[in-house]
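User: Please fill in residues for this 427-position structure.
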């Protein structure tokens, strides 16, 4: 059987193909000379499978799509406080190249607009790197997100640098407020190099999938940046990634995203997939026209809006049954799936409503594949209260999903590998 996914992607591409509205990025001459008809879309799953349709191996410059990744590198390299001291996280509702600062703090409003991104570039790597070393740090980091060594397009870089009046104005403003402490021109040069890194739609899908996969590149297995950094980056992408179209995007598409003026667009759906598209004609916000249409269609067809999630809590209790009879009867609560706070609350309700008459109570976690911190604490508290009510409590946990369970304060629990081991304990 052939996979259905590439066929679906090809069909979605076809549905947007005839739209030739929008303009190439005119302010960078080399980009204005690009082939406007290129069109591609790709998915990369958190397991590293890539599906695509159209021009997914054509390279183009990453431009502003570098911003969330380089923000991640700066947060990983310097820590949160020094970066947040210099760059805010508030949506600006302004164009990407607005010359503006937060009036109260004097910081650029967020790392997705140029003022923030130019500052963030200067915050990558160790403080004492020279500009060349800093660019190398950035290219190396972007390459780790892509899972292969990325190169730079020197022509696009030179072309943008020769016309970088606006970014230079921004950098000089930043320097005059001491947000930048390095030479303004050198930082713009480094930032422009960062924007000139060549990627394909396939690369961008993998880079987005690395964000979707909590910072671990699904192809190379490398943990590129720590998990808390990824949460920060995805949050900022969600609120600021599409500039002055961010609100429309958040409601219509609902996927943390970032666009670039060469026509690339990425979306990262936490825990699921990275998506990327390429189509060079841009709307008035500087976002790819057909890219936006593609994402709208994908999100609607596939239910990808992050605010639209299945009610996983309801399915957490798979069964609640009695095994055996008489004084040896066991009460078995069989749980399943991923358990977060709402799922744990469901288990509490089940335990309270059952108020098991049986002496021995088993929580069977065999079919649980993840349990977050708050859910683990709630489960252990259930164990503790059951113990205090006079029950003998067992945790069936063959894969140590709750390692070293300690219900504390009078709670007791016996960990076993299967329900059978409770019925007939090994001698
Ligand atoms: N939105 C973008 O992709 C802008 C990136 C471009 N290098 C700039 O700084 O103007």
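Assistant: Residues filled in for all 427 positions:
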């Amino acid at each position: 059987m052939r996979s259905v996914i590439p066929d679906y992607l090809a069909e979605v591409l076809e549905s947007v193909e005839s739209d030739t509205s929008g303009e190439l990025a005119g302010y960078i001459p080399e980009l204005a000379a690009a082939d406007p008809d290129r069109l591609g879309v790709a998915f990369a799953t958190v397991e590293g499978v890539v599906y695509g349709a159209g021009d997914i191996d054509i390279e183009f410059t990453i431009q502003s799509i570098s911003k969330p990744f380089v923000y991640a590198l700066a947060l990983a390299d310097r820590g949160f406080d020094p970066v947040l001291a210099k760059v805010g996280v508030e949506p600006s509702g302004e164009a990407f190249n607005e010359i503006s600062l937060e009036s109260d703090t004097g910081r650029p409003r967020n790392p997705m607009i140029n003022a923030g991104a130019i500052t963030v570039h200067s915050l990558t790597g160790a403080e004492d790197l020279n500009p060349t070393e800093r660019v190398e740090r950035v290219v190396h980091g972007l390459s780790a997100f892509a899972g292969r060594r990325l190169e730079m397009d020197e022509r696009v870089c030179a072309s943008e640098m020769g016309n970088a009046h606006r970014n230079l104005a921004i950098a000089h403003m930043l320097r005059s407020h001491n947000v930048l402490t390095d030479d303004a021109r050198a930082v713009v040069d480094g930032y422009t190099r960062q924007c000139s890194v060549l990627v394909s739609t396939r690369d961008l899908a993998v880079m987005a999938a690395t964000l979707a996969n909590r910072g671990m590149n699904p192809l190379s297995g490398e943990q590129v940046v720590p998990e808390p950094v990824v949460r920060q980056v995805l949050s900022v992408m969600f609120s600021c990634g599409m500039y002055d179209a961010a609100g429309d995007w958040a409601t219509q598409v609902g996927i943390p995203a970032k666009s670039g003026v060469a026509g690339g667009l990425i979306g990262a759906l936490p825990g699921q997939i990275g998506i990327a598209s390429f189509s060079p004609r841009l709307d008035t916000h500087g976002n790819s026209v057909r890219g936006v249409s593609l994402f709208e269609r994908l999100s609607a067809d596939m239910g990808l809006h992050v605010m639209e999630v299945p009610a996983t809590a309801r399915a957490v209790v798979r069964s609640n049954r009695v095994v055996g009879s008489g004084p040896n009867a066991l009460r078995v609560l069989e749980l399943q799936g991923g358990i977060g706070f709402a799922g744990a609350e469901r288990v509490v309700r089940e335990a309270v409503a059952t108020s098991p008459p049986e002496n021995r109570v088993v929580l069977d976690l065999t079919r649980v594949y993840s349990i977050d911190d708050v859910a683990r604490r709630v489960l252990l508290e259930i164990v503790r209260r059951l113990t205090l009510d006079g029950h003998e409590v067992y945790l069936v946990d063959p894969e140590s999903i709750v390692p070293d369970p300690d219900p504390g304060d009078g709670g007791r629990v016996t960990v076993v590998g299967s329900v059978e081991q409770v019925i007939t304990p090994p001698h």
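For context: The first strand starts at residue 40 and ends at 45.
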